[in-house]
Amino acid sequence: MATRFLPCPELPDQLGGGRSFKKKHEENKMCAFDLLAIVAGNLLLDKESAPSSSNTTADKNQCAAVNSNVKYEWQDEEKPLKVEACDHGSAARNFFVCGPSQVHGQGCSSKEPLVAQNNLNLRLASALTKSDWAGRSDAEKLGNDKSKNDMGTFARKVEGVSSEYREFGDCILEVETKRAVKDEPGRFGMVLGSNVANACSLEDPVVLDAKPPALASLDSSAKVPLCRNHIPNSSYPTNRDDVNVVSRDDDENSGCSHPITKKKFFRPAPRIGNRRIRKIMASKYWKVAPRFKDGTVSNPDGDLKPVFRKRKNYYRQQRSERLYPFKKRKHYAYSSPSNSYGGMSCNGDASGSCSRMHGVTGASSSFVAQHTSLQPRDSHGMRTFNGGASSSFVGQRTSFQPRDCHVKLRIKSFRVPELLVEIPESSTVGSLKRTVMEAVTAILGGGLRVGVLLQGKKVRDDNKTLLQTGISHNNQLDSLGFCLEPNPSRTPPSLCPGDSPFLLQCDTPEPLSRCPPTADVVCQGICTGSPEPHVNNLGNYIESDHDSASSPADTSMDKSTNSKALVAVPAMNVEALAVVPAHRNSKQSEIVQRRIRRPFSVAEVEALVQAVEKLGTGRWRDVKLRAFDNAKHRTYVDLKDKWKTLVHTARISPQQRRGEPVPQELLDRVLTTHAYWSQQQASQQLKPQQQAETCLLL
DNA sequence: GTTAGGG
DNA sequence: CCCTAAC
């Protein structure tokens, strides 16, 4: 189980590395870490360029879309950076900028089904100032024998999570990697504070999540109780009002005990108004494979695979992958696992009568304070952890209280409903950030309400008691969830309509829950234009889908065998990442973004017609395979639908037709073909009937 | 997982 | 393009 930590590739220039990102990219050497770093870099830049100054960095950035829907390129004159943002699937990474100053990112791509073992999740767990770093003991750093402050080589592995420290500009980033679970994307957040200046004090409850490398174990013997009534705001120079105190160990011995003796230093985040903001990037879909030397190796083709589904046949995948950024959300109310936690801890008195769910006091104030002040923003919550079996609720009540039992629960985090942000490709990164910020601000401004889910079902009756509802039972707490929903009266415009609750998000497993309690994350897909597929008429081969045309980053990520940033995490307890509650009802999970509309080109129509002529209607899968095999974004359902509309189009007058005109010749063939195969089908149906009649006659 | 059909 | 029933 030895984790192999390979040297990291150089970071982009901006990040203090040698080679420029672009260069790396060209060499296909970019690794996931680089992406993380880059995103982080943008965040940092964003911070720096933030409010007042017309920061040049941001201004210089250029956002160039490639093929209109896949990549955004941020370029600085000297330090080319690139982060891809794509709206869907096949081979691209998807970055979502979320939350107030948070980035929620995810990368995924796929050409082939996943090989779960090869998927790693990354998360940027923390960002420290250099001074913070220097202040750490070696053990705190990584507890190994590496040279003291050599961030690049420090690495540790805890509970299946490998951590690595990297120097990044003026701060130190901690990146965690963890293998994804089969069929289940891990949930990692990438969190970094944004202010270098103010490191959390040692008392900072916020960073409790950090398990110092050396101490990283579940052994609670080392735990040092935290001041549970710590009031963040008063304690720090930085006025953090959203500090969450999380008692992560689920043991009930102490209300706010925490296994960790040491806190992590997070850079104080930038604030918006009075809020501290965290930037978060979740990269749970990232797979970083080829970095392992032993055993686990990514697919030969080096594609990144989405982890969220099982491989069946490639076909299925085709459909799945296009659903990417959005569909998967449906199934995993994912999101950076513990972007924020709210801690609701009990006083820990053994009597079992826990303090009530504190409102705004003590350790638990974090949650309340945070969410009340900002409006609940993040929805997710349920999480499984602690050996992979619990939920975000650590709640439980002692069994024998005669009456008036209190339900203890802890909400690990909330996730904010998705936002859909549209922004011209020509926009600058800076404007993108502003746009996101606005959207986030809007949604956090009161357009939310809290929903309660039990066993995946919404509890609508507000008048029921917890007892009546069943929430008071221990076994129910595991299936208790909260979600944020658009407030009917105040639904932000940018919010997708619908009442879909945003399911509580599962959280990272214990070992991973080191994300500081951040503000919540609002995810937003970056919708870009649609590429026009082009048809290679040879053999009806349609080669469209730019997305699948292995995005550079995609390949690079996987081929970056040479790069050394990522850490392979050998087999581990996968359950730890299986954070999605079984009861999750995907239907109510989240709002699902509609795929972008991608009108069929004439060439595609041609190919379709030709295939249908050959295969007939009713064999859409075959049609797909035959003529659209490489058009990842065209599913057989799409083809079927297109045929349907073609038939319709052919039947209406040209004046009534819309869109790119389809040559009449093609439409004629459509009608002919349709008529022919309809007849075939009819006769096929007649046969058995005739046979039956024959039988009867006999 | 596919297919068919309504929305 | 989505959703779902039916298989």
Automatic annotation (TrEMBL):
Q: Which Gene3D superfamilies match?
A: 1.10.246.220
Report the residue ranges that make up the HTH myb-type domain in this protein: 593-651
CDD domains tied to this protein: SANT_TRF
Assign the protein's first listed, main location to one coarse class.
nucleus
Instruction: Kindly list the GO molecular function terms attached to this UniProt entry.
Output: telomeric DNA binding
Keywords from UniProt, A to Z, are: DNA-binding, Nucleus
Q: What sequence ranges are listed for the domain Ubiquitin-like?
A: 407-477
List, for all copies, the residue spans of the domain called Myb-like: 592-647
- Where is it localised? Nucleus
Q: Does the keyword Nucleus apply?
A: yes
Q: Which GO terms describe its cellular component?
A: nucleus
**Keyword field contains Protease:** no
Q: Which PANTHER family match?
A: TELOMERE REPEAT-BINDING PROTEIN 2-RELATED, TELOMERIC REPEAT BINDING PROTEIN
Q: This protein is called what?
A: TELOMERIC REPEAT BINDING PROTEIN
Biological source species: Salix purpurea (Purple osier willow)
